[in-house]
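I would like you to help me understand the sequence and structure tokens below and explain how sequence relates to structure.
___
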Amino acid sequence: HKILNLGEGDKVVASTTARATMDAAVARATAGVVPSALSLSSALSCTVKSYAVSVRPRDVLYRQIDGRVEEMVTSGLLDEAAKMLDRGAVPEGCCGTRAIGYREAIGLLHRVSEKCGGGGGEDDGGAVEIPVSACTADDVRRMVLDIQRSTRNFAKRQLTWLRNDESFQWL
């Protein structure tokens, strides 16, 4: 049995009859393909049993998400996003700029930069001046609320996906 800790009390227990099952799942996942346990089971001709345990009520999960987002922002999310933009990242560009949190922070910085007349250009090599200090408290509050909402929606989709995956038994 293998217990995968999803954090804060949620665990997924995976039991397989062959080590090859896990190796194949890792190989396919790193190739961008994440098969369900049922399809993996039939492809490898072995038994795969998956269990999911959720001990956290949704309101507790959402409070923890909200707190984590606030911690990310106070720990320098906007500064990190500014560094990404300084290095040439663009909103909705690479995977990193589309990640929840960075997407909203980079979007805010990009909007503030355009409002302040920044944004770089050909004469300065395309460098982007990032006005972190130009972000108002209201801008940051709106960004925090957007990140919290996006993260809660993502968590809800994950739980829905697990509940609808026939290969998982909920305990």
Observations:
- The longest helix spans residues 137-164.
- The longest strand covers residues 10-16.
- The chain has seven helices and four strands.
